């Protein structure tokens, strides 16, 4: 016969299993969404509250971080959360197996917008949208991606502090490959001139 402690432990274990099964999975990975160019320009449902599609909008400036950005759109979703949308004119890269994956620097660009929107508005955003000519991805506001962007920002600030003590900023070791992979190449004084920008 089972003791009361064993019965209690079995009940707690059963409850834990039930909670795990009923809790929706955390989406911390970038995932591909259906891509339909004809459906509302590929924007998520909601009201467009910001647009830089023509390149003339004022940048969004975070209060708590040294970040600013100009997403192509910000959509106010039905749940009251803002969704940044970044549109790239090129096609999504493919793996050797043919699977489409977004460029990591593009993902970090969307996460930067998520951090800015989180700083400016409540409730915090849940995800952003990254749209290529042939594929659309949902970029989660995942803690690991947020930490990566803020770590890069910290590194840039450290370089700026060093640069402040010299006549000209340190150049580091830019190259076509490193500049192409950097999420901040569009605003970096050291970016290689040969790197082509992704402009919509």
Task: Tell me what the structure shows.
The protein has helices at 4-22, 104-120, 143-163, 176-181; strands at residues 31-33, 47-51, 60-61, 68-69, 73-76, 82-87, 127-131, 136-140. The protein has 200 residues and is α+β, with helices and mostly antiparallel strands. A six-stranded mixed β-sheet has the order 1-8-7-6-5-2, with helices on one face. A two-stranded antiparallel ribbon has the order 3-4. A hairpin with a 5-residue loop joins strand 5 and strand 6 (82-87).
- End-to-end span in angstroms? 71 Å
Percentage beta strand: 15-25%
Give the C-alpha Rg: 21 Å
- Poorly predicted sequence stretches spanning 5 or more consecutive residues: 17-27, 194-200
Main beta sheet? 6 strands, mixed
Helix content: 25-40%
Number of helices, counting only DSSP H or I runs of 4 residues or more: 4
Strand order of the largest sheet: 1-8-7-6-5-2
Order of H and E elements: HEEEEEEHEEHH
Class inferred from helices and paired strands: alpha+beta
For this structure, the quaternary state is single chain
Count of extended strands = 8
Mean pLDDT over all positions: 78
Bulk shape = globular
Task: Please tell me the total number of domains.
Answer: 2
Helix and strand arrangement:
Elements: H1 4-22, E1 31-33, E2 47-51, E3 60-61, E4 68-69, E5 73-76, E6 82-87, H2 104-120, E7 127-131, E8 136-140, H3 143-163, H4 176-181
């Amino acid at each position: 016969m089972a003791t009361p402690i064993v019965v209690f432990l079995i009940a707690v274990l059963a409850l834990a299993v039930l909670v795990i099964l009923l809790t929706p999975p955390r989406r911390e990975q970038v995932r591909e969404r259906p891509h339909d160019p004809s459906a509302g320009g590929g924007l998520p449902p909601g009201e467009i509250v910001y647009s830089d599609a023509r390149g003339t909008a004022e940048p969004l400036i975070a209060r708590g971080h040294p970040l600013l950005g100009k997403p192509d759109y910000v959509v106010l979703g039905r749940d009251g959360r803002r969704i940044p949308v970044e549109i790239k004119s090129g096609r999504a890269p493919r793996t050797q197996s043919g699977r489409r994956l977004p460029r990591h620097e593009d993902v970090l660009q969307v996460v930067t917008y998520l951090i800015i929107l989180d700083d400016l508005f409540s409730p915090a955003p849940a995800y952003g949208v990254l749209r290529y000519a042939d594929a659309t991805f949902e970029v989660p506001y995942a803690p690991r991606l947020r930490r990566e962007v803020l770590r890069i920002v910290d590194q840039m600030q450290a370089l700026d502090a060093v640069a402040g003590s010299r006549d000209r900023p340190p150049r580091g070791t830019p190259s076509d490959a490193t500049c192409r992979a950097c999420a901040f190449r569009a605003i970096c004084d050291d970016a290689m001139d040969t790197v082509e920008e992704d402009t919509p």
